[in-house]
Design goal:
This protein has 454 residues and is an alpha/beta fold. The protein has 18 helices and 15 strands. Strand 14, helix 14 (336-349) and strand 15 (353-358) form a beta-alpha-beta unit. The termini are far apart. The model is unreliable at 440-454 (pLDDT under 50).
Length: 454
């Protein structure tokens, strides 16, 4: 008898930043269930909307929900809806892993950390016992659950080793386009103050070059991919592996058939790496440049200098690739003058595109610890106040600045948005678009500078 699982990706589907990448984490879980239990044992769907309809039409036996911190309130709302149908609710993802104390009574079991092995153990238990009895849950590593009204936790589960033992994600459950995304690693070598990735994954682990090329081949041959975004925190963690990926793509006749984008760290950029990326087919590179103010850069990132940021941008651009830089403003001790140094850096460095975010405290990070000590965050709060969408939520998001008011920070942020819009228009003109005012209205809504709030 098949066990039906409904996986819910709890996101705000109205925000393009949240829908830009597919829920590959859930697709890995689905693939692992098929591999370990057998495809005939499970039937799986992945959705990010229409939950009520899916509950009625699909009639799942188990519902699993994944959410990042700013959407955890959505996850709780989904769980409440599911409980009205009398179904067990599992929850996983970075938020609940970093802050298990926030686990909702509307949920039955929380998966802590990497989830593939744990979800297989949980579904096996359900199939055997037709439920999740507490006396059996305590035998499964890597979870939290309710026992007599109190939150209980088991020993943390060791990550999958080797990483290649995991099957390719079940992309047949996702909406696929010619622009695809994939992971070639898990984790990061570094521990930026605002990022939870290295805290969630632990040490960095890499899929082998052969595994990566097999996945690229599937994306090209099965799904018709023309471009692939490597979602790794640090695609260049092992330059030798990148070279091997390039050589294997050439051997299989795939080199030159696809274009790639990836993320790297500025102080690890050199001419050799840039040349290798260009040979691989990388068109654009993302870098967390974070700040044009040396003091803020050191606070946020550590181990990277402003000079290295400038050099990295120059090295990538002279190799013929575009540079996307991400920046963070609003650190506790950062002044308005410090923020304007970042604006000046963007102009001088000539990054091709950029995004600017206001520092947000996410669970498990040093920035969260700072905000918690100030009484700004905790295990029970309005999670949408940690939204990274400053445009729509600037009036209510948590602000960490000790130097600037909310309005002052918003005014400075708007200056970056205006520069971004000018850069985008210049890009359109460079591509031969001679009537940029004919940009569709929905795009103008996202790009036009906002009026300053009175």
């Amino acid at each position: 008898m098949k066990t039906r699982l409904l996986f819910i990706n709890a996101i705000d589907t109205a925000q393009s930043i949240e829908t830009s990448n597919p829920p590959l984490g859930l697709a890995y879980l689905a693939a692992s269930l098929r591999k370990q239990l057998g495809a005939e044992a499970v039937e799986i769907r992945i959705v990010d909307s229409g939950v009520e309809r899916e509950l009625l039409d699909f009639r799942p036996d188990i519902v699993g929900i994944s959410a990042v911190t700013q959407n955890y309130g959505r996850a709780i709302a989904c769980a409440s809806l599911v409980k009205k149908h009398g179904l067990p609710v599992l929850c996983g993802g970075v938020h609940i892993s970093m802050l298990p104390a926030s686990f909702s009574p509307q949920m039955d079991v929380g998966v802590i950390g990497e989830g593939e092995l744990t979800i297989c153990a949980l579904v096996s238990l359900f199939r055997e016992k037709n439920g999740f009895p507490a006396e059996e849950l305590k035998k499964i590593n890597g979870i939290i659950y309710w026992e007599q009204g109190r939150l209980a936790a088991t020993e943390r589960r060791a990550p999958a080793e080797p990483l290649d033992s995991l099957p390719l994600p079940a992309r047949d459950l996702l909406a696929m386009t010619k622009s695809a995304a994939m992971f070639t690693s898990r984790g990061c070598l570094y521990r930026c103050a605002f990022c939870a990735s290295s805290r969630f994954w632990g040490r960095i682990r890499l899929f082998s070059a052969g595994y990566v090329v097999n996945e690229i081949a599937e994306l090209r041959e099965k799904y018709g991919a023309e471009s692939i975004n490597f979602l790794d925190d640090l695609f260049s963690a092992d330059v030798g592996r990148v070279r091997e990926i390039k050589d294997l793509l050439k051997k299989r006749g795939l080199l030159g058939k696809l274009k790639f984008t990836c993320s790297i760290r500025a102080n690890k950029v050199d001419d050799e790496m840039a040349g290798l990326f260009r040979e691989l087919g990388v068109e654009s590179v993302g870098m967390g440049l974070e700040s044009g103010c040396e003091e803020s850069l050191d606070y946020l990132k550590g181990g990277v200098t402003l000079a290295e940021n400038y050099k990295a941008v120059e090295t990538i651009r002279k190799s013929g690739m575009r540079v996307y830089g991400s920046f963070v403003i609003g650190s506790p001790e950062e002044s308005g003058e410090g923020i304007l140094k970042t604006l000046e850096f963007i102009k001088k460095s000539r990054v091709d595109a950029f995004g600017v975010y206001v520092l947000t405290p996410f669970p498990g990070t040093p920035v969260w610890a700072y905000a918690e000590a100030k009484g700004l965050v905790g295990a029970e709060m309005d999670w949408e106040t940690l939204s990274v969408n400053f445009k729509d939520n600037h009036a209510r998001v948590v602000i960490l600045s000790e130097k600037l008011t909310r309005d002052e920070l918003y005014g400075l942020w708007l200056r970056f948005e205006r520069l971004k819009f000018r850069k985008y228009l210049a890009y359109l003109l460079g591509r031969g678009v001679r009537a940029p005012w004919k940009i569709p209205g929905f795009l103008l809504e996202k790009l036009l500078p906002l009026r300053r709030r009175k």
